[in-house]
Amino acid sequence: MLTAEPEAKAMAARAVARRWHAGELAFAFDVAMPDVPARPEAPQLLPPNAMPKRGRGGSERGRIALLHALCHIEFVAIDLALDAAGRFGAERGPGFVGDWLGVAADEAMHFALLARRLRTLGSAYGAMPAHDGLWDAARETAHDVAARLAVVPMVLEARGLDVTPITIERFEAAGDLRSARILQRILDDEIRHVRFGTSHFERVCEERDESPPQLWKALVERHFRGAIKPPFNDSARRKAGLSYELMAGVA
Ligand SMILES: [Fe+2]
Ligand SMILES: [Fe+2]
User: 112 C-alpha vs ligand 2 centroid, how far in Å?
Assistant: First the structure.
């Protein structure tokens, strides 16, 4: 998280996951997580309302801007996964750490695939401004693992499951099958990330003797300011363990 340079951060994330799964790292949590991870000089980070309009992805420029936005999301997702492992790993145990370090490695791969695609299209990660504020959810939920899981994987990453199929269709319609294939691979991985979120959340609920739908609803109302609205990708959400009952917030 202290590595700012994007390619180096992606490589470091994959290395820490590899070393954890090879049994080379101790289960020790004596270093505090940074409040904000190191950020590279580019992209310039702008508040959401100051972001230039991206268009609907019809033009090649519009599609490059969309890939850039997705690349930035993956870049921040590396730190979100590392932060979950480092901040809550001591209390949640080795299984939790392994799952989130695996997610960090996936996000690093997603970032690398999109960054390479941008270069092939004559652009690069950092060539355009990017959305500041993706770290807000981490800050907002740093005090409680249940809040973190309820908001980051179960709301934000789940939102990705809903919108990615539409984005894939848009790239296919434009004849950019290579970008579409990258997004399909990302979608498959993200189903697993949401499932990790859901299953760890349910485990926490069980230990606290809480009802998952009720606690999820309370935490999302408290810590997430956006709306959770359809259309939902029902089949992907079902595979990820996000049942209708859970999302409706009914006990
Ligand atoms: Fe990802
Ligand atoms: Fe993810």
Answer: 14
